[in-house]
Sequence to fold (505 residues):
Amino acid sequence: MEELVSLCKRRGFIFPASEIYGGLNGFWDYGPLGTELKNNLRDAWWHDMVHCPPMGPDGEQLSIVGIDSSIIQNPKVWEASGHVGGFNDPMVDCRETKSRYRLDHLHYIHHDSCERMYAFEISSSNDSYERACKLMAKYLKLESLPEDINCDNGFQIGCVEDLAPDYIFEDLVGPDAKEPGTLTEPRQFSLMFDTTVGATGGDDNKAYLRPETAQGIFLNFMNVVDTMRVKVPFGIAQIGKAFRNEVTPRNFIFRSREFEQMEIEWFCHEEEAQQWYEFWCDYRKKWWQKMGLTTDNLQMRQHDSNELAHYAKEGCGTFDIEYKFPFTDPGYGELEGVAHRGNFDLSRHGEFSGKKVNYFDQQKNERYVPHVIEPSAGLSRGTLALLCEAYTPDDRPSKVFMKFNPRIAPIKAAVFPLVNKNGMPEVAMKLHEDMRKKHVVQYDAKQSIGKRYARMDEAGTPYCFVIDGDTLEDNTLTVRDRDTASQERINIDQAASYLDDKLSR
Ligand code: GAP
Fold:
């Protein structure tokens, strides 16, 4: 992870926000390459979900329309949605180290013969778990703990949340602490960012930055039904910023306080909801695979009943599409949630606003509040997964290359003159001018050809076109493939269609 974060900074993918002032925990800026990468992922999602949505289980193409709603809404929205008052994380502080932890992220390791328990953080790197194992081994006067920890050899691993308070306060050693008993009682921590609207200030003018884009969709359900001639089942999609005052922002852009989401609310009849739920779980996993995340690094996981969000429909629940990030390995971290929200949100907005929020099916002569299946993906987290997946150590001079799927690669191709003289730059610049009309293509004439390849490898550019002495004689150039570093010669007139063809696969 450290190597990836350093490459991201060195090559202009992602920088800490307000870096020259020491940064601000949980906030990040995207540099030129990171912005292109994130925009490509965003555009692929919008294209595949809104402009060219998939076929549904009935063989009909889905109908999904897009919106772009306001980040700040009437504060009553968040009372109706359950976020004000309900969107909290329990947290504990460590008196010894002054660190703060989300209670639901703390696990402990325990042995029958030992009154101490050692806590570790599951959302953090493996170091936390390894440290707990080392301390436990030291306490038990063992060289190391057995690899397979289970109740047969007297060990247990469990959630700190499930421990009785006495154990937490007396016997538990915090993840970074030396002695037991330094963790405080859990406190609820609101994740909502608030602000004031207008010049007068005060509590009456308090408003919130949205913690999810979803509510903007529910608020516009009736507007879309009334203006777009849509028929249930249909979806509304939105991409945009969301803000959460996370207790423990960490792991680069994985958990930040400002991030982007790509959400669809799929409105359907209650009787068809289960079928749509299964469809979306399956389709969304395949979509991430199409973006280049390999099968081994992706998994589906059903939420346990104690993890369900306040809106999740009882008995149905949520599937997470999870990715094996370097800091979760060998475990997985959430990339997207597919939730069955029932008709919770539409009903609550109807109730709280006193306005009609429902749907009339003319064919069946039936009025009802549609049920909702919600595939909710993180655009920022998705960008991180693509960066992790692309990072490929190699023995080439750059020692690493970014193996992005060409569809989402920030730069699609580079054009180089072999040397910056003898008529080569003019030919290369002309090719660059032609190609950049359609794709993001860079021209580079500085330094040795090896260094230029290395720069493009780190940026994840799939193809480099090189104009050399032979080009001036026979109109051919060299194309170099990022993944294999192999080269082939093609006619310069075919270069544009060669690139089109490779990018359309
Ligand atoms: N509307 C449902 C909803 O917001 P969620 O599971 O809380 O559900 C959906 O969030 C997705 O948003 C997550 O799967 C994750 O990819 C992303 N996400 C949530 N909190 C995040 C954070 N603090 N930083 C980055 N991404 C986050």
Summary: DSSP finds 14 helices and 27 strands in the chain. Residues 213 and 286 are 23 Å apart (CA to CA). The chain has a mean pLDDT of 93. Residues 212, 214, 244, 246, 255-256, 259, 261, 263, 334-337, 374, 376-378, 380-381 surround glycyl-adenosine-5'-phosphate (CB under 6 Å).
